[in-house]
């Protein structure tokens, strides 16, 4: 590119490859919103058992888990490289019910649409992916699949 007497070389940036599931491209997220005393999030339903829709074993301990446990996976930014593994968070639903759950996994916001991720797209950056037990403790209808909640460190 010429600008007056200055010559600025054109530099091509590397292409960002977005995961593609069934022909649809999905964004990647490295960061999540800041964690506060009442962090807005979307609660999704996850099956943490072997063969469940959670894909492979949990990132925190390499194990599958029983869905009767109050457990969650957090979006990549909130998972924070595993720094929240084994810690409890408090989740509050819009119906006023709240519960605590242990962080056992990452809801991968960077990768997806492959066998490791049960062919599911990457998580958004604001996901708390809860077990059946979490949904039941909050008095929520699992058929909804996704609901607005808030969460904080317990």
Automatic annotation (TrEMBL):
Keywords: Secreted, Signal. It comes from the Eukaryota. It is found in: Secreted. One of its GO terms (cellular component) is extracellular region. Its main location: secreted. Transmembrane segments: none annotated. InterPro entries: Kiwellin-like, RlpA-like_sf. Belongs to the kiwellin family. This is Uncharacterized protein.
């Amino acid at each position: 590119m010429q600008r007056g007497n200055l010559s600025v070389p054109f530099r091509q940036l590397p292409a960002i490859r977005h995961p593609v599931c069934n022909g649809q491209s999905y964004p990647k997220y490295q960061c999540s919103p800041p964690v506060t005393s009442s962090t807005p999030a979307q609660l999704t339903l996850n099956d943490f058992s072997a063969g469940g829709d959670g894909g492979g074993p949990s990132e925190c301990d390499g194990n599958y888990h029983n869905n009767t446990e109050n457990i969650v996976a957090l979006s990549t930014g909130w998972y924070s490289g595993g720094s929240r593994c084994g810690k409890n968070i408090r989740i509050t639903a819009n119906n006023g019910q709240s519960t605590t759950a242990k962080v056992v996994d990452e809801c991968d916001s960077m990768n997806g649409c492959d066998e490791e991720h049960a062919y599911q797209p990457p998580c958004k950056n604001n996901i708390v992916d809860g077990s059946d037990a979490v949904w039941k403790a909050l008095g929520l209808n699992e058929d909804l699949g996704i609901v607005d909640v808030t969460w904080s460190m317990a």
